[in-house]
């Protein structure tokens, strides 16, 4: 089953948007298989954003991502990688469509609330960077058992 890595960045935690973001993924129908609130080390931040090393925004991005707690998550479901990117919206929140998370809640490219893996291979790399295999729970959603 396809999985993606999602992180609510420090601005999302500070603005009390953790519940809102989790609700959107739950209501869409994806399955939460990993979740933790954590401080991000410079080392982890650099490794996560390795492809952006050397770009003009890199240092600011490192300062921001390590500035406060982040909620790291793994979500599972058919097509979850691409669907999550759609739900998150464009990198620049001013061009992100209304109805997307960034489009609804953010105004600045450097404070865009949430990260989502951009491809299946990236998702696999990021999941193993942020989570130990034993901290991910594969579970079968069964709606019926909660209704009887
Ligand atoms: P993310 O990796 O955080 O999910 O964001 P993304 O795929 O939509 O965008 P990406 O190109 O991977 O950029 C990573 C983060 O770097 C910051 N950024 N700033 N000032 C700029 O031009 C600029 N470009 C990118 C953003 O915070 C972006 O989320
Ligand atoms: Mg990216």
From TrEMBL:
Entry's localization field: Cytoplasm
Binding site for ATP: 9, 57, 85, 91, 102, 112
Catalytic activity, EC: 2.7.4.6
Quaternary state and interactors: Homotetramer.
UniProt keyword ATP-binding present: yes
Catalysed reactions, semicolon-separated: a ribonucleoside 5'-diphosphate + ATP = a ribonucleoside 5'-triphosphate + ADP; a 2'-deoxyribonucleoside 5'-diphosphate + ATP = a 2'-deoxyribonucleoside 5'-triphosphate + ADP; dZDP + ATP = dZTP + ADP
Family: Belongs to the NDK family.
Pfam families per record: NDK
Nucleoside diphosphate kinase-like domain location: 1-138
Gene that encodes it: ndk
Protein name from the UniProt record: Nucleoside diphosphate kinase
Active site: 115 (pros-phosphohistidine intermediate)
Top-rank EC class of the record's enzyme: transferase
Gene3D superfamilies tied to this protein: Nucleoside diphosphate kinase-like domain
Gene Ontology MF term list: ATP binding; metal ion binding; nucleoside diphosphate kinase activity
GO CC annotations, alphabetized: cytoplasm
PROSITE patterns the record matches: NDPK, NDPK_LIKE
InterPro entries assigned: NDK-like_dom (IPR034907), NDK-like_dom_sf (IPR036850), Nucleoside_diP_kinase (IPR001564), Nucleoside_diP_kinase_AS (IPR023005)
Function recorded in the entry: Major role in the synthesis of nucleoside triphosphates other than ATP. The ATP gamma phosphate is transferred to the NDP beta phosphate via a ping-pong mechanism, using a phosphorylated active-site intermediate. (Microbial infection) Catalyzes the phosphorylation of dZDP to dZTP, when the bacterium is infected by a phage that produces the substrate for the synthesis of dZTP (2- amino-2'-deoxyadenosine 5'-triphosphate), which is then used by the phage as a DNA polymerase substrate.
């Amino acid at each position: 089953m396809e999985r993606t890595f999602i992180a609510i960045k420090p601005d999302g935690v500070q603005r009390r948007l953790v519940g809102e973001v989790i609700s959107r993924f739950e209501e869409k129908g994806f399955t939460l298989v990993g979740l933790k609130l954590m401080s991000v080390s410079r080392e982890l931040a650099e490794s996560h954003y390795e492809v952006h090393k050397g770009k003009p925004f890199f240092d600011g991005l490192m300062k921001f991502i390590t500035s406060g707690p982040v909620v790291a998550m793994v979500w599972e479901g058919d097509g979850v990688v691409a669907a999550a990117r759609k739900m998150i919206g464009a990198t620049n929140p001013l061009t992100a469509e209304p109805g997307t998370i960034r489009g609804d809640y953010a105004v600045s490219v450097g404070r865009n609330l949430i990260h989502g893996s951009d491809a299946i291979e990236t998702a696999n790399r990021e999941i193993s960077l942020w989570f130990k295999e034993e901290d991910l729970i594969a579970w079968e959603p069964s709606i019926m058992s909660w209704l009887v």
